[in-house]
Each structure stands twice: as structure tokens, then as C-alpha cells.
Amino acid sequence: MGLWHLAHRADWDAACAAGTYRVSTRGRTLDEVGFVHASRPAQLAHVAEAVYADDPEDLVVLVLDEALVGAAGVPVIEEDGGTGELFPHVYGPIDPSWVTEVLPARFDEHGRFRVDVPG
């Protein structure tokens, strides 16, 4: 099914050095929100365009192995994002070892969100 999180490249690089990722969403931490926002692949473009469209920082998509998250005892709960659509929320910090891919992401010249998936 896929568990994706949109991140600033700088935040991800800092998390790799620190050993844990604690950013929930743009400008908000896990400690402030209580969980890390995530999306299913089909949901991410809409979220990115709503929250990150004017963000000048380099973006990446963290592809998480949901089985590893669960095996670590960190709950992933599908919850209403405010419109009735369910989004996965990760109730704990992300261990970098759970991330199977880091995909470059950007907005094209028309303002549409793009993920650079290899292959």
C-alpha cells in the first residue's frame, strides 16, 4: 500500500545524523502535533500542493516500510484529515532504518507536485 512522508531534505539529513526524524509536517514537530503526518502514494500530491506549494526548500519523499514501523511498536493509525479522507499518522519518531527509499520531489512549472521515481 505504501507509507510516504514529505520532508525537507535538510530535516532528513539532520535526522540521519541524529538517528531519529521528528518532523510532523511543514513547520511542526512530532512533539507539537503528537504524530508524524504521512500519506498513501495517491494522496501525496494533493497534500504537497496544499501545504508545500510555496516552500522554497528542497523536498524529498521518505518511503517507509510500514511493517518495520509496526514491528518497532509504533502505531500507524488511519485518521480523518478533516475532510473525511483517512490519512496514516505515525505515532512516534521515525527511525531512519525504516526508510527504504528517499525520492527527490519538486513542483513543475505549472505548480504540480512531482516525485522523481527511479526507473
Keywords:
single chain; 119 residues; alpha+beta; ADP-ribosylation fold; four-stranded antiparallel sheet; three-stranded antiparallel sheet
Draw up the topology in text.
Blueprint: E1 3-8, H1 9-18, E2 23-25, E3 28-29, H2 30-33, E4 36-37, H3 41-51, E5 59-64, H4 66-71, E6 76-80, E7 86-90, E8 99-107, E9 113-115
Antiparallel strand pairs: 1-5, 2-3, 4-7, 5-8, 6-7, 8-9
Pfam family, one: DUF952
Organism: Cellulomonas chitinilytica
InterPro entries: DUF952 (IPR009297)
Describe the 3D structure.
This protein has one domain (3-115): Protein of unknown function DUF952 (ADP-ribosylation fold, Alpha-Beta Barrel), CATH 3.20.170. Helix content is 26%, strand content 34%. It has 4 helices and 9 strands; from the N terminus they run βαββαβαβαββββ. It has helices spanning 9-18, 30-33, 41-51, 66-71; strands spanning 3-8, 23-25, 28-29, 36-37, 59-64, 76-80, 86-90, 99-107, 113-115. The strands form 3 sheets. Strands 1-5-8-9 form a 4-stranded antiparallel sheet. A 3-stranded antiparallel sheet has the order 4-7-6. The protein has a two-stranded antiparallel sheet with strand order 2-3. Strand 8 (99-107) and strand 9 form a beta hairpin. It comes from Cellulomonas chitinilytica.
C-alpha-based Rg, rounded: 13 Å
Give the oligomeric state of the chains in this entry, treating copies of one chain as homo and distinct chains as hetero. Answer: single chain
In what order do the strands lie side by side in the largest sheet? 1-5-8-9
CATH class: Alpha Beta
For the record, give the distance between the C-alpha atoms at the N and C termini, rounded to a whole number.
Answer: 19 Å
Number of strands: 9
Helix tally equals 4
Question: How confident overall, as mean pLDDT?
Answer: 95
The helix content, as a percent range, equals: 25-40%
* Residue runs with pLDDT of under 50 for 5 or more positions: none
Strand content range = 25-35%
